[in-house]
Give the backbone structure.
Amino acid sequence: MHWPLRTELIAGLWHYRSMKTPCTSTTTSGLRGEYGEAADDFTVPQDWDSYSPEAHERWRRLYAAQSALAQRHAAPQFLAGLSKLDCAAAIPRFEETNAVLGRATGWQLVAVPGFIPDEWFFDHLAHRRFPVTRWLREEHELEYLVEPDVFHDFFGHVPMLLDLRMAGFLEAYGRAGERAMAMEALDMLARIYWYTVEFGLVRDGADLKVFGAGIVSSAAETVYAATDPDALRLPFDPVRIMRTAYSIDSFQRNYFVLDSLDQLIGSLVDLDFGPIYERWRDEPPLPAGQLRPGETAFEPLGERT
Ligand code: HBI
Ligand code: FE
């Protein structure tokens, strides 16, 4: 069985359990990666020279497969970003990418051992530093792994960091983290990230395209989210999203579709999250996969009425 490539699926577990113990080794956190070598801000050197020829070859195959699918199904903004990243032939050197990113949007990549604590994740984003996992998945995990690796983090996320709107949105998300944590509403904020940065779709004329990193780094979910008549695609609505549960071990049971990337910032910039957190944080989330009264789902081509 080929499960979707679900790289972020333990984000929730991480938040609830792992943070109770200091994340300094794989044994205390249960996470893969060299946490013992990390600096206080959880960064590590990328150590590009330590990648084996087999790892670079594996990257090439992953890149070839996913970029072919992306040409058909990914948003033009993702493809525009990908075309500026010279990363088809080998695992990229973050240093080289940083020159391109810095010029385009001021973002920089920092290497990390894997999942890092929420506080640090938000702090990096708030300062336009994107944490990218250093290690690459093994041969037997090409289709499925539970933690983000360098392919998910780089191929999935970095193309969109070259888009000015996504660049601004991710910084704003990082800044929003502190308040969400203080108000004990991190789950609500995290759903915004999940349903946009990780699993977002956007209209492209009459068509729907994928741009979320969790989708574009998964062959099976790219096809499912972009083309399957059974996938439930709902109109983007921030409060609805903050209230909607998500799947961590299967395809998403619903997706949210932006009219444009401008809507991402436009709809959130004037929203006062405080009262929304207070109103909904203690209520159980809406189950995923259900159309609510008044909602109209999207078909892959055009709208269903
Ligand atoms: N760390 N490396 C990494 N990648 C993530 O996507 C990530 C993380 N730490 C916390 C986190 N995500 C989420 O729990 C927050 O977005 C809420
Ligand atoms: Fe991700």
Notes: The longest strand covers residues 108-112.
